[in-house]
Design a protein that fits this description.
Keywords: Iron, Metal-binding, Oxidoreductase, Peroxidase. One of its GO terms (molecular function) is metal ion binding. By secondary structure, the chain is of the alpha+beta class. The chain contains 14 helices and 10 strands. The protein has a domain of 242 residues. Strand 8 and strand 9 form a beta hairpin. It is globular. The relative contact order is 0.19.
């Protein structure tokens, strides 16, 4: 059984809808100050013990980077037990993740990727009022403590449309996890072993994921990848308009690139026309597979949702070993409807991956499925939404009698920075607070 009272609520809890969120990053200059704040935070961070209670929709999560664990004075023998991707950090993994050109670390928003980010606090709530209350409780843990400094903040929120900046309904799918008490959103998907997402439990291979010692430090923790992704909304809209013959065709192209209509309705269920009622129904909008569409006449094999979660498709690699918990929170104002020129305002998503295997989950999906096409016999074709084609990308839409092909795909998403972090269990937070150096 999952020890829910020791697991941070943010590990297993789906993001509320609507939502407000804030990310705050800290640098730890004094180990004793850092340990004091971690101890205080252990009383503020909510556990996953009551995942369906109304109060569980508001939570504070606390995560530490590798440099942050070093700054707290964690023994080297414990540090060596963390995954090597985590120890290297996201900036060092940039090439493998496709963060090149404009997305490369030298262009990232500081302090992201610099080594100065030690502690990541994330606060999520259904509304601004409850968010401010949670932020106040978190603020009390570090204000007035010398030796720890807040160095960056990003506020996020639901857009008025209820969608992400490109106009799609977001955060629809959620996998079922044994022992979590939270149902999945696809009845065709059997529950995953808890060890795919939480350390200390068997995973889909039948073994235990590698875990740092002592056990109190690693057990009930997990890894998280935070990424700030700038979205070029005007470019996306312009590209659709330039390659479509009508407003209806624009929406069809947008649906084919994503694998869903912008309402959230999946092409697998309604390939010829949108169904907003279906798109808004959480009981039905993710309840499908691809077995009856091997060629992709309904959902193109290269579409975003088919790449990031091939479901029952027969592809290279075992699909269940690469399943991810994914959360997205929008930042910046909406670009007004119909505007086709960029207004110079920063907008996009704060993306978060949660899982026990940074390498075979987040990095595999990013490098092999999003930035590559060999697993679907698509050659070097990349994800049409979040891939990085730099103006030379293409996207094929299977159709009878002649497939449709989009060429000259520009870069719609630019990485503005990111960090790998570790979300410790609550007992681990108290263990970290009691460290002596």
């Amino acid at each position: 059984m999952l020890e829910l009272d020791d697991i941070q609520s943010g590990v297993l809890r789906p993001r509320p809808a609507p939502y407000a969120a804030t990310y705050v990053l800290f640098r730890i200059d004094d180990p004793r100050a850092g340990r004091e704040v971690i101890g205080r935070l252990s009383t503020v961070v909510a556990s996953a013990a009551h995942p369906t209670s109304p109060a569980a929709d508001t939570w504070v999560s606390a995560a530490l980077t590798y440099r942050g664990l070093e700054a707290l004075g964690v023994p080297q023998s414990s540090l060596d037990g963390f995954s090597w991707e985590f120890r290297q950090g996201m900036a060092a993994r940039a090439k493998a993740l496709g963060d090149t050109g404009e997305s490369s670390p030298e262009h990232w928003e500081r302090p992201l990727g610099t080594g100065d980010v030690h502690l990541v606090l994330v606060t999520i709530s259904p509304d601004q009022e409850h968010l401010e209350g949670a932020l106040d409780r978190a603020r009390e843990t570090y204000e007035g403590v010398d030796g720890i400094q807040a160095i960056w903040r990003q506020d996020c929120h639901s857009l008025r449309s209820g969608k992400e900046p490109f106009g799609y309904r977001d955060s629809i799918g959620y996998p079922p996890i044994e022992g979590s008490g939270i149902p999945g959103t696809n009845s065709h998907e059997r529950p995953f072993k808890a060890g795919e997402f939480v350390l200390g439990y068997p995973d889909e291979t039948g073994g235990l994921p590698p875990m740092p010692g002592p056990e109190v430090l690693g057990r009930n923790g997990t890894y998280v990848a935070f990424r700030k992704l700038h979205q070029r909304v005007a470019d996306f809209r312009r590209y659709l308009k330039e390659n479509a013959g009508s407003a209806e065709d624009e929406e069809l192209l947008a649906a084919k690139m994503m694998g869903r209509w912008r309402s959230g309705a999946p092409l697998a269920a309604c390939p010829l026309h949108d169904d907003p009622e279906l798109g808004a129904d959480p009981r039905r909008n993710n309840d499908f597979d691809f077995a009856d569409d091997p060629t992709g006449y309904q959902t193109p094999p290269g579409s975003h949702i088919r790449r990031t979660n091939p479901r029952d498709a027969s592809v290279g690699g075992v699909v269940r070993l690469h399943r991810m918990l994914r959360r997205g929170t929008a930042y910046g104002p909406e670009l007004p409807e119909g505007v086709l020129e960029d207004d110079g305002v920063d907008r996009g998503l704060m993306f978060a991956f949660v899982g026990a295997h940074l390498g075979r989950q987040f990095e595999f999906v990013q490098s092999e499925w999003i930035n590559g096409g060999e697993f679907l016999s698509l050659g070097e074709a990349k994800d049409p939404i979040t891939g990085y084609p730099d103006g030379g990308g293409s996207f094929s839409i299977p159709a009878r009698p002649i497939p449709r092909r989009l060429n000259g795909l520009p870069r719609f998403v630019v990485t503005r920075g990111g960090e790998y972090a570790f979300l410790p269990g609550l007992r681990a937070m108290r263990w970290l607070a009691d460290l002596r150096t």
